[in-house]
Write a structure and sequence with these properties.
Oligomer: single chain
Shape: globular
Helix content: 55-70%
Subcellular location: Cell membrane; Membrane
Pfam families: OSCP
Radius of gyration: 20 Å
Strand order of the largest sheet: 2-1-3-4
Membrane topology: Peripheral membrane protein
Protein name: ATP synthase subunit delta
Family: Belongs to the ATPase delta chain family.
């Protein structure tokens, strides 16, 4: 991610912080991301650093003029920024849509998205169907809606269906994992994925969350994965940071040293 995109994402998030949005606003932003992602000419024009920002904002008005004033204002803020690439701009609009969901939904979206990831991981045929380049994209979102139904919130369903329909070459699970981080960031927290051989007790989970919160200087929520191959100990991942205290890793390291 280039420095221009980093600054553009921060500016877009700031614009959202002062906006009044609903799930319909988020839905419109997802639709705008899809439109920009499907048109290299449109995304290229909106990300053209040589063009005057006012001209890029005028283009937003011409292309997305039927959207709500809230969505238009946010897209105008996005187009006014300097992006490192057209792909980054499309990612930025999608990120803004996910943040909008987080702003409107009550706590729980991160956990629900994590549950969706586990459902996909445990169903290879579903993952294959969602990752296929064949078929109508709308069929993928219909499949998600059929499987999840009312088991998740409307916001979680919107994020999942939108990503499934417009994955842009990404693995759906990976894109949903990124969405979890975006939702957490909007709420001023981080998310740790913890792999352990046996389920943590409530007390262990709280101690771990408190310890990680002190280390990272922000509230941390725990997503737990039971993995028998861990044997003992835990493996923790927060964004790109990995803390591996599992016995299986220690045994692997020991075998490597003995073999070397």
């Amino acid at each position: 991610m280039g420095s221009a995109t980093t600054q553009a994402l921060a500016a877009s998030a700031q614009a959202l912080s002062t906006a009044t949005v609903t799930l319909d606003t988020a839905r419109e932003l997802f639709a705008a991301a899809r439109a920009a992602g499907e048109s290299a000419a449109l995304s290229g024009a909106l990300a053209d650093q040589a063009a005057d920002p006012a001209a890029r904002q005028a283009l937003v008005g011409r292309v997305f003029g039927t959207l709500s004033p809230e969505a238009m204002n946010l897209l105008g803020a996005v187009s006014a920024q300097r992006w490192s690439s057209a792909d980054d701009l499309v990612d930025g609009i999608e990120t803004l849509a996910i943040r909008a969901v987080a702003k409107t939904e009550q706590a729980g979206v991160e956990g629900e998205l994590f549950h969706v990831i586990r459902v996909i991981a445990e169903n290879p045929e579903l993952e294959l169907a969602l990752g296929s380049r064949l078929g109508e994209p709308s069929k993928k979102s219909e499949l998600i809606e059929k499987i999840l139904g009312s088991s998740v919130s409307a916001g979680t369903l919107l994020i999942t269906a939108s990503i499934a329909e417009h994955s842009r070459g990404r693995r759906v699970r990976a894109a949903l994992q990124e969405a979890i981080q975006v939702v957490a960031a909007e709420r001023g927290r981080a998310v740790a994925t913890v792999q352990t051989a046996t389920a943590l007790t409530d007390a262990q989970r709280q101690r771990l969350a408190d310890s990680l919160s002190r280390s990272y200087g922000t509230a941390v929520s725990i997503n737990e994965v039971i993995d028998r191959s861990v044997i003992g100990g835990i493996r923790v991942q927060i964004a790109d940071d990995v803390i591996d205290g599992s016995i299986s890793t220690r045994l692997t390291d020991l075998r490597s040293r003995l073999a070397g």
